Prior knowledge:
With 242 residues, the protein is α/β, with parallel strands linked by helices. Helices cover 46% and strands 18% of the residues. Helix 3 (57-72) runs antiparallel to helix 5 (109-121) and helix 4 runs parallel beside helix 5 (109-121).
Amino acid sequence: MRGWRWIVAGAGIVLFAAVLVPRVRTQxxxxxxxxxxxxxxxxxxxxxxxxxQPRDEAERxxxxxxxxxxxxxxxxxxxxxxxxxxxxRMLTETLGAKHVVEIGTANGYxxxxxxxxxxxxxxxxxxxxxxxxxxxxxKANFKRAGxxxxxxxxxxxxxxxxxxxxxxxxxxxxxxxxxxxxxxLSQLLPRVRSGGLIIAHxxxxxxxxxxxxxxxxxxxxDLETAFVDASRWGMCITRKMK
Length: 242
Ligand SMILES: C[S@@+](CC[C@H](N)C(=O)[O-])C[C@H]1O[C@@H](n2cnc3c(N)ncnc32)[C@H](O)[C@@H]1O
């Protein structure tokens, strides 16, 4: 009987050493920090240039303007990040968009990303801005980038000016004051074609200001949404299903 006791006690010690001790070491308070996998922004910055490689002279002018604006004008402008710009361009091209609507032009940085796509889709951008200084800056940027034939810059409060917009709209970018997003959505949604996209920017970085908007899209069964963090600011991408 005594021999059995020693065998059981020995087996217990071995089990403790083999199973529990390593667990305590990897999960307990003194566990070494787990290596965090890189996020999309870090991978993108490692493998991609900040702005795309131009394929012709017209793209070279647009990309040169984007690069200059990113370095010299982005401070306090609220521009999308290059990683978001890539997504906007890709979605616009993938949709074959003929009409893109933007609320919040600022100096025209995101508008230029749309223009890269619209050159190949044969589409147009209608972009809206309320601030006269930013309107002047955007006009100068559009001129040097050579994109004036691709867009219309509508001046004034977009809540009023979008009433004049005609559909069908393929893609909307909401990038003005967050508290206005639900009004922009309810005004523009009827003019978005089925299969079209409504993209709300800063859906991670300023999520706390967008709860009404999130509720509005989530309660509509005709809308399907994905949150994409290409940059850490995030985009809430909603598809109009019918
Ligand atoms: C975040 S910035 C837009 C950035 C731009 N989409 C980009 O990525 O380059 C927001 C802009 O919305 C404009 N804005 C705010 N309220 C507006 C309104 N009611 N109508 C039109 N523009 C508005 C602001 O003046 C500001 O320039």
